[in-house]
Amino acid sequence: MNVRRLIPTTAVAGAVALGLVTLSACSGTSDAADKAGGRLSVVASFYPMQYLAEQIGGEHVSVDTLTAPGVEPHDLELKPRQIGELGEADVILYLKGVQPAVDDAIKQAGVEHTVDAADLTTLEKHGTGGGHDHGAEEHGHAEEGHEHGHESEAGADPHIWLDPVKYAEVAKGVGASLEKADPDHAADYKKNTDALVKKLGDLDKAFATGLKNTTTKTFITTHSAFGYLAERYGLDQEGITGIDPESEPSPARVKELQSVAEKEKVSTVFFETLASDKTAKTLASDTGLRTDVLDPLEGITDASKGDDYIEVMQSNLAALKKALGAK
Questions:
Q1: pLDDT tens string 255-295
Q2: Which of 57, 125, 284, 300 has its CA 20 to 30 A from that of 65?
Q3: How far is Cα 263 from Cα 231, in angstroms, rounded to an integer?
Q4: Each residue of 171-182: pLDDT tens digit?
Q5: Do strands 124-125 and 156-157 pair parallel, antiparallel, or not at all (unpaired)?
Q6: Structure letter (DSSP) for residue 119
């Protein structure tokens, strides 16, 4: 998540204006169903949304994702074809505020069953340091005039999928949305949702048990993607940069982290698979610490330590237990 290369709203609007006739308010549902072989056509913005759609939709859905494996979601540049095909989807599943270019295109698409995952749980604010920053603010346009939701909620953290409990809340909402979009298969969607929620419940228990007794509660990571996870399990996240890292940390921040590492007996600096590990390795070298991967699960690639959400989260748990000195 180092670099944001965003498509301006005007560029998206221009692409739509230049004859992308497939974009229409009626969403071309029957055409989409035909293309999907009679299945519900679901477009997911990036991997955490794709995983929900596949797990809950099962054999009744055809899932396409806008973010290819290996592409850092914030770097995504939509092709005109992708923007056009959005309008043909039966269901769009996304997380507003993660990919502004996607947000703009979805707004243009006008698909009836458009699901914003952040409307299905509560967004909170998490600072660069500390996992107990509860400056929580209920998502859902509680403040007047907040048409743009999360972007207007000064610093709201979008990484809800890294907390299994919040992710389960989102899963229930996605299940309900698929039931509404395709009532003929509602019973199967409900069954699949319940199965996924149970898996996420088991994952939550594994994290709670595995991280209950540790030598330290503090971990250092490239950027502050793990605020929800830290808060859920009583940990303190220290991000080298903030939630949206766009620049190198200041010398003062590096000095502060060196002090935190010594005081809190930190052993490891974490980096991620889809972003540069240069900053983490430099800090680790300067402080005599190890490095390891803590995956924010924005995409699955050959470098991922697992084939899906559950497996990678289990790898994250193992890495945290090792780094924190779990007993």
A1: 899 999 999 999 999 988 777 778 888 888 888 899 999 99
A2: 125
A3: 20
A4: 999 999 999 999
A5: antiparallel
A6: G
